[in-house]
Each structure stands twice: as structure tokens, then as C-alpha cells.
Amino acid sequence: MTWYTLAIISALFSAAAAIFEKKALLKDSALNFSTLLATVNLALSLPLFYFNQAISITDPRLLVLLFKTFFGALAFLFIMKGLKNLQISGALPLLVLTPGLVAIAEYFFINDTITKIETYGIILMLIGTYALQIDNTKGFFHPITVFIKTKGRLYLVAALLIFTATSIIDKLLLSEYKLNPKTFFAWQHLFLFIHFTIFALIIRLSKGKLDLRKSWKLSWKWILLVSVFTIIYRYSQIEAVKAGKVSLVLTIKRTSVFFAAIIGGTIFKDTSLLRKAIAIIIMLTGAALILITF
């Protein structure tokens, strides 16, 4: 199977996962859903431990991965909270900003340069983000004020900032420290399960309410579907990156946001889908300009 076929598979299953995540979150809490999903993801990932390279539990790379996945778990939880509180066509496109933030972070923290093409890409993503939030009846600065004041969007901003940092750590682990992608994949799911279990226990002890059994009965079909889709899109992305150019794989993968936002927006009857579709295309174009320079 060619790398671009794998990248397209990754994009389509990523979009499907996002749509069913929104479906589950209509009736379930973000933490309950995330904890149960992490559990099922680990169960489906267990066979990979058998086929992986031998690695010591005290390997410094695993310790870094454990640290990284703590923040990755927080970011995923924030995304689920944002997805629960916002329309899917308004929430998911904001995640396209990640490449721009990563490029800026690399410029400041690891002395990487920002090219003219990357600058144009960042500008396009900002224009697309503005267009995504605009309301012609509420003034020029409304997209900025609504972005700052809306609870769901603040969760997504927090997730974006975390993903910016963790993306750099991923790059170091896989490229500089040569951690095998399949080993990375398997151990990441184990660590995510541990972190979400701890989050759930903390909530249970502090608030005395976390009925995972009830959530499982309520959302088990969606959780299983999302888990299968998640495993497929993450693994196919790894295999695509292995065979093809990373920047091109990620560019194709980003199209998942368009599919999820438009198809999901239609299913959940989101508003202003045409405007949002145009805004997403602008943002994806900006992301592509940045990614092709990686």
C-alpha cells in the first residue's frame, strides 16, 4: 500500500473518530469518555508490545514519553471539553493552528528559522481563524472577543499550547533519540491510560461522583467505534510517515479537519457551514505552506 493511500486512510478515519466523539459527548462527560476511550485504546494496542523492540522500563526515552503523555492527556481532555461545548465545525478547525504554533515555538526555543513561506502560512491561518469566528452583525473585533470569552474555545487554546510543546518533544524522541514509532505508539497508549485513570480517581475522591459504568452503558458503542478509528488513523499515519515524506503526509492528514467539520456540521446541524468551509480551506492552505518546509 502506498504512503499517500495510508495518509488518506488516516485522514478519513481521523475525521470519523471526531464525528463519533462529538456524538458520544452529547450525553457523556469529557472525562468519563476520555478515560474509557484510553482504556479501550490500550486494550487494542496490547499486541504491539509483543512485536516491539525490547526496551527497558528505565530507558530515559520512556521517562520523557511518560512526562509528555501527561500533558498529552490534558490536551486531549481539553479538546473533548471544547468539542462538547462548541459546534464541531467551529471547534476542530482551530487545531489546524498547531503547525504555526510549532514553527513559532521552534524559532524561539530551538533557534530554528521562520521562512517567508512559513510566515505566509501563519498569516493565512490567522485569517482563516478570524473568518471562522466572524459575525457581520457584531463588529470587526467580535471574533477576537468571542474567542477569548467562550469557555469551549479557551479549552482549545490550552490544548493548542500543550500540543505545541508536545509536538516538539515527539520530534525529538522519534528523530533525535531514535525511538521506534511502534514502540512509541504502544507505550504512549499505556501511559495515557495511566494518566486518565489517575485523573478519574482524583475526581472521584474530590467530588465523589464518577460513574464510569453508567458512561460505558450509555456510550459503549461510540467508544468502541472511536477507539477502532483512533488505532487505525494513528497506525496508518505512522506507516505513511515511514514510507513517505513527513510534511506531505501531515498535509494530507490535515484534510481530516475539513471532512469532520463539514460532514459532522451537517449531521449536528451547525450554522454558517459555507463560511466555515471557506475559512477551513484558508487555514489548511496556511498549514500546508508551513508543513512543506519541514
Number of helices: 13
Let me know the number of strands. Answer: 0
Cα-atom radius of gyration: 19 Å
> What portion of the residues fall into strands of 2 or more residues?
under 5%
User: What is the chain-wise order of helices and strands?
Assistant: HHHHHHHHHHHHH
Distance between the termini: 24 Å
Shape, per Cα inertia axes: globular
Number of domains: 1
Average pLDDT, all residues: 82
Give the fraction of residues assigned to helices.
over 70%
Poorly predicted residue ranges: none
Q: Give me the secondary-structure category.
A: mainly alpha
Largest pleated sheet: none
What tags apply to this protein structure?
13 helices, globular, 294 residues, single chain
Detailed description of the structure:
- With 294 residues, the protein is mainly α.
- It has one domain (3-291).
- 81% of the residues lie in helices and 0% in strands.
- The two termini are 24 Å apart.
- The mean pLDDT is 82.
Brief digest:
It is built from 13 helices and no strands. It is mainly α and 294 residues long.
What's the topology here?
Layout lengths: L2 H23 L4 H22 L8 H26 L2 H4 L6 H12 L6 H18 L8 H8 L1 H26 L4 H27 L4 H32 L2 H8 L1 H13 L5 H19 L3
Helix pairs in contact: 1-10, 1-11, 1-12, 2-9, 2-10, 3-8, 3-9, 5-8, 5-13, 6-7, 6-13, 10-11, 11-13, 12-13
